Amino acid sequence: MLDHPNSSLTRFIDALRANGFTGDIESDLGACLVAATDNSIYHVAPDAILFPKSAEDVERLARLAQDHDIALTARGGGTGTNGQSLNAGVVVDMSRHMRDILALNLEAGSVTVQPGVVLDQLNTYLKPHGFFFAPTVSTSSRATVGGMFATDASGKGSRIYGRMSDHVAAANVVLANGRPVSVTTHGTSDAELGQMGRALCQELEGKAAEIARRFPDLNRGLTGYNLDQARGASGDLDFIKLLAGSEGTLALTTQLTLRVTPFPKQRALTVLAYDDCALALSHVPRLVEADPSAIEFLDDKILALAAASPMWSQLEGVLGQIGDAGGFLFVEFIGETIKEVAAGQKRLARILEQGHVPVAAQVTTAEPTDMSALWEMRKRSVGLLAAVETKRIGLPFVEDAAVPPEKLSEFVAEFGALLDGFNLSYGMFGHADVGCVHVRPMLNMREAQDRAMIRKVSDAVSDLCQRHGGLIWGEHGKGVRGEYVERYVGPELYAVMRRIKAWFDPDNRLNPGKLVTAADSDLKVMKIDAVPMRGTRDAEVNEQAFGAFERAIACNGNGACHNWAPDDPMCPSYKATRDKTQAPKGRATLFREWSRSTSLGEPVEEVEAALKESLDTCLSCKSCSGQCPVRVDIPTMKSEFLSRYYERHNRPLRDHLLRYMERLSMHLRRRPRLANMAMGNPISRMVLNKAFGLSDVPGFSITSAEQMVVDNGGRILSKSDNLGDKPVVLVLDSFTGAFETQVVGTVTGLLVRLGYSVWACPPLLNGKAQQVRGFARDFDVQRSKTSAALKRMAAAGAPMISLEPAVTDLFSKEYQTGVGVGAAFRVLSLDSFLHDNLEDLPRMPAQDGSYALFSHCTEKTADPATGRRWVAIFARLGLKLEQVSTGCCGMAGLFGHEAEHQDMSRDLFDLSWRGPLTKPGRTPLATGFSCRSQVKRFGEQPIFHPAAALLARLTQNPT
């Protein structure tokens, strides 16, 4: 931690340490910059971030904050779209440590959790017991239940399941003075708080008519200080309804007891396509009569963006035939039995037969994989609208307006006309059945005239919502839009809300300036255009830096990289640390600030050091480039940064070795026994570790790659060869071609048995290490040489096949840069080639036994169809192949061999791979060289390339 100029903050932090605070304390510039943004347009840096480990820590920090006059703002997943958890003072982040599921009571139908538990984490825990937590938000992979409580979140299915507050039975909270209290839907056992509750109930009873007049009759409701629902039927104060949606302005949540819902055993999804959005939305009131669990909407812009992303390979089979429509409704039915779901579909069919609104096309599926892919696309709508290839991107400042469903079509038409009047494009998606359609106007926040639109559009949309009996905030909370609260509730009820704030937090210590301020205080509520905006800072980045780091500036903060699931490949370094500075979003923030500082000519040492430290734990696995909806590619920007950084700093000795390691290995592989003896003895291993920080360097294969090709029926390519019938060319890489040549032999033997004339080139240098380490000029030279070789081989007309996923990805991406779009070569993965020529494989009867596919993380995020291709190939030969969901194995090429990363590398292997590898009854297979190397290091059994199983099948059953 750096010394901070704020003396009150310094004394506060000193007091925390002296009084037994057990959590983490961070006040360095990098951490504060990362905490300065969420999924909104704003940038507000805190003075420090606290990561408590227990309720006692929260009590302690709140008590000491009062003593030292420190403001506190709670934070969970950081996915707020309107600056909900952004503030000056100290941020209290519950997501790093307070993420335990404490108790499950199936008899009572409840689960007790800490506030940092992620929604997907909770549902993964509940699923084996037959339950789930019903509020379904699109950010479920990173949204915390504490954050959901703070905004009274809802989402898909809310027409039947309601909001977060409908599923909370009790909460433990800490008041602004540090006093812990427990509250329920029926009151509290705390005498002082109970007295306040009774007084408030009496006041609310006298204002029932005004509440009924002011609060709209919507599924979404006027969340936050829910005066319309806070007074229970029995006259008790429902503290849950009062606190839900208050965005941490009344108390800090430390524990929640949640009501769980039986998991529906059956479901089916119908996608309805319409000529335009207006037709789709006008149909919703009729379709609701079929009583589906959800009706979700998205427009053609969302679908077009999805079609241009890696996820489309999972969707094309379902949506490809209707993808040119103008608007889409996703209508889902759930039930305990197939018959129950079918009954819902029949109700829908009868409504459609009446022809109230013309439907251009429809597709129905009950296939879990298809439904999962469709809902995942809907979840990613937010990010997709920030991935457009223009300077203007979809922004969330008015995106969650809600109106009565019967007014939705008219409302959206007027909304569209309003934005047209401002000459703004937009994309739409949302929860049509409850009248909440997310509309994201497209703005370039680097431009002052576009930043000025925030006020103009927000005021106009607020007026439009009120005219239609709706709300400008229907789902995502208020955040800095709290300035509109008095406009909606009126001065009389606004005064009540200010008195509530004063009862709980008289000094405006909790998330100050949000929603309302305490009665009799001078603090004003924040204004939407007075809070510092991220775009103002981004505008200071010059064009040179903007061009190199544009994807970092495009990061909209949606937080998909904060994915909780250990079996998801997105950002392994974040999973291992739960440190948001070590996630793509945090790194993008630091890239932006570094670019801004260098553009302004300001001292950049502290920012640069924070960025360099963050990038040191990046595995360069490229999962972010495939999975981030905005396509933030941290490894590519890391390479560019390192290239620039080491123009002014001395490189470590290891980098100089790695610069030439690939070329050196091509020489050493020709004397493998001597090389292994020289590198594998204890003294050499010690030198590699101490001098270069390298460990577990692989040994060279004794038989050369070329010999393996020849021994298995292939031939080595030369200039004058006639390639013969059904030729294929193996593009050998420097990894399998030097350290794992048995894979080369296996693939050669497989293709020969399938009737191909197999040719191979000697292993080619690819420059991967140079590219990762930021040796830009060296990589450019190597790319040019290898591209020329690939072009010459491509001229022969035979398909070219690469065996190593990381190299295949390099050839398909970085190698297309600088050699022209539509370059004169295309290198296929083995599974792509075999799947394209599936008819060349013999159709064989089913065989007992099962295989498990562990795909390389770069491969499956860049090309999600790879697993399904392998399944189809295995099925053709009568083999059962199961796709295993895993994250990164922890090797990631160079990363796993670096001594300082040994613990993280092993932790990642244990987190994601160890368990699935040891599952009995199946044989594991891995596509990646680094993955197989990691299993060899840390696993308990050998693992082979998928080609080995295919060749064994053909060998056992010759054709």
UniProtKB/TrEMBL annotation:
InterPro entries: 4Fe4S_Fe-S-bd (IPR017896), 4Fe4S_Fe_S_CS (IPR017900), FAD-bd_oxidored_4_C (IPR004113), FAD-bd_PCMH (IPR016166), FAD-bd_PCMH-like_sf (IPR036318), FAD-bd_PCMH_sub2 (IPR016169), FAD-linked_Oxase-like_C (IPR016164), Helical_ferredxn (IPR009051)
Catalytic activity: (R)-2-hydroxyglutarate + A = 2-oxoglutarate + AH2
Family matches, as Pfam families: FAD-oxidase_C, FAD_binding_4, Fer4_8
Cofactors: FAD
Molecular functions per Gene Ontology: (R)-2-hydroxyglutarate dehydrogenase activity; 4 iron, 4 sulfur cluster binding; D-lactate dehydrogenase (cytochrome) activity; D-lactate dehydrogenase (NAD+) activity; FAD binding; metal ion binding
UniProt keyword list: 4Fe-4S, FAD, Flavoprotein, Iron, Iron-sulfur, Metal-binding, Oxidoreductase
BP terms from Gene Ontology: lactate catabolic process
Residue span, FAD-binding PCMH-type domain: 42-263
Domain 4Fe-4S ferredoxin-type residue range list: 609-640
EC number: 1.1.99.39
Family to which the UniProt record says this protein belongs: In the N-terminal section; belongs to the FAD-binding oxidoreductase/transferase type 4 family.
PANTHER family assigned: D-2-HYDROXYGLUTARATE DEHYDROGENASE, D-LACTATE DEHYDROGENASE
Annotated protein name in UniProt: D-2-hydroxyglutarate dehydrogenase
UniProt organism field: Falsiruegeria litorea R37
